[in-house]
């Protein structure tokens, strides 16, 4: 059996830098190798953290959205090279910003551009169009996503990288293709067959009681300030953000990425994705120099490209990583972290509820990643 004592000790040591809660689950070949919790679910430190507790996933939601959308691709209901306006006609004639002003876009947005953050959108909710649309508290996912069609793009689709609302648009595409709300589609192909009870977009009153405290973090002074567990990506009562809207506990999210790490087949035998579809996820899709230059502005992406399900390991040496080429996944605004490595049949999910911590992103995530690989390879 592998020795994960270094991982446990490291997680426990985070309290010394005011990281007050953290959970981790490591699976390989459907076996749970490690499930460990540190800290408390409440700011008063009266309730020990456990698997009953929930977290807003923020951008770890993107992994779920990509998997669900790739299911449609493998079924032939959606094509990566399809243009977005085939499903959302309002995106047929886009404008794009240039040094000389705004002009008609030469390229149409493709579905693959949404996967790779190459559509030219932003994450700006403060535009007049968004502010007006959000006055409708019952606005649907499709209605709010359509607002993006009224703003000029930051660049020609497919030519650069910009982290944005691309995956929210993917959720709207899934709704058009399936004829269901995005959450209903996830429930049909993922939550129900995998017996997932602790994941969704809309918290019940009982779920709210199980939500952990959320912290804002000062990475200069290593100080966390508790606050209410809010999700600023819940734009309306009916909006289901494919980019940042889900909540989950530790083990339910782990069930999903464990299935992907094992060729698309879950522990209970349910096939979420075909093995050849999973193989597509571990391939870099950034093609231009501009895309790589923009993407790698953050040091934590050195050695990584970006594919159909987040980061993709291309050169472990460049990132001082112990992980395999083709390892992929993503993280979230509250610093949760997902890793999927089909070559090792390995999945890792680390949960915190700490916002704005460069220390977690740039130090803790890579250290935990490397410790896990060291343990399984000794």
Description:
- The chain is built from twelve helices and 14 strands.
- The protein has helices at 5-13, 61-74, 111-115, 128-133, 141-145, 166-178, 182-191, 205-210, 250-261, 275-281, 289-295, 358-377, and strands at residues 21-28, 31-39, 55-56, 95-98, 101-104, 214-218, 223-227, 247-248, 304-307, 310-313, 328-331, 337-341, 346-351, 354-355.
- Strands 2-1-13-12-11-10-9 form a seven-stranded antiparallel β-sheet, with helices on both faces.
- The chain is globular, with a radius of gyration of 20 Å.
- Helix content is 30%, strand content 17%.
- The chain folds into two domains: 5-53 and 210-377, Beta-lactamase (3-Layer(aba) Sandwich), CATH 3.40.710.10; 74-178, no CATH class.
- With 378 residues, it is of the alpha+beta class.
- The protein starts with a helix and ends with a helix.
Question: Outline of this structure?
Answer:
By secondary structure, this protein is of the alpha+beta class.
CATH architecture type of the largest domain: 3-Layer(aba) Sandwich
Termini, distance in Å?
Answer: 10 Å
In the CATH hierarchy, what is the class of the largest domain? Answer: Alpha Beta
The CATH topology of the largest domain, please?
A: Beta-lactamase
Helix fraction by DSSP (H/I, runs of at least 4): 25-40%
Give the oligomeric state of the chains in this entry, treating copies of one chain as homo and distinct chains as hetero. single chain
Give a topology summary.
Blueprint: H1 5-13, E1 21-28, E2 31-39, E3 55-56, H2 61-74, E4 95-98, E5 101-104, H3 111-115, H4 128-133, H5 141-145, H6 166-178, H7 182-191, H8 205-210, E6 214-218, E7 223-227, E8 247-248, H9 250-261, H10 275-281, H11 289-295, E9 304-307, E10 310-313, E11 328-331, E12 337-341, E13 346-351, E14 354-355, H12 358-377
Parallel strand pairs: 6-14
Antiparallel strand pairs: 1-2, 1-13, 3-8, 4-5, 6-7, 9-10, 10-11, 11-12, 12-13
Helix pairs in contact: 2-6
């Amino acid at each position: 059996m592998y020795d994960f004592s270094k991982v446990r000790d490291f997680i426990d040591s985070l309290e010394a830098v005011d990281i007050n809660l953290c959970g981790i689950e490591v699976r390989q070949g459907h076996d749970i190798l490690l499930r460990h919790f540190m800290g408390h679910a409440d700011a008063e430190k009266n309730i020990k953290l456990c698997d009953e507790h929930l977290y807003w996933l923020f951008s770890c939601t993107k992994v779920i959205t990509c998997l669900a959308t790739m299911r449609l691709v493998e079924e032939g209901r959606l094509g990566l090279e399809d243009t977005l306006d085939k499903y959302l006609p309002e995106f047929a004639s886009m404008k794009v910003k240039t040094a000389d002003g705004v002009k008609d876009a030469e390229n149409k947005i493709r579905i693959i551009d949404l996967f790779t953050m190459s559509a030219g959108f932003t994450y700006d909710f403060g535009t007049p169009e968004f502010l007006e649309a959000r006055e409708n508290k019952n606005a649907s996912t499709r209605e709010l996503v359509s607002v993006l069609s009224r703003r000029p793009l930051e660049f020609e689709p497919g030519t650069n990288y910009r982290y944005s609302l691309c995956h929210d648009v993917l959720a709207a595409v899934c709704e058009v293709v399936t004829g269901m709300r995005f959450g209903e589609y996830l429930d049909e192909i993922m939550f129900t067959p995998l017996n997932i009870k602790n994941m969704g977009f809309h918290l019940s009153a009982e779920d709210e009681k199980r939500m952990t405290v959320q912290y804002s973090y000062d990475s200069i002074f290593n100080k966390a300030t508790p606050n209410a567990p809010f999700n600023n990506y819940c734009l309306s009562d009916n909006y289901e953000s494919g980019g940042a809207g889900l909540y989950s506990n530790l083990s339910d999210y782990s069930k999903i990425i464990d299935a992907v790490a094992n060729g698309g087949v879950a522990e209970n035998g349910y096939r979420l994705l075909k093995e050849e579809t999973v193989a597509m996820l571990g391939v870099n899709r950034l093609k231009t120099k501009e895309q790589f230059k923009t993407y790698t502005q953050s040091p934590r992406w050195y050695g990584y490209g970006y594919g159909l399900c987040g980061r993709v390991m291309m050169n472990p040496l460049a990132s001082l990583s112990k992980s395999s080429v083709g390892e992929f996944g993503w993280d979230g605004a509250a610093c949760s972290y997902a890793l999927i490595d089909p070559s090792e049949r390995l999945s890792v999910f680390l949960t915190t509820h700490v916002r704005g911590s460069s220390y977690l992103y740039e130090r803790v995530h890579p250290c935990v990643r490397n410790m896990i690989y060291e343990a399984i390879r000794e």
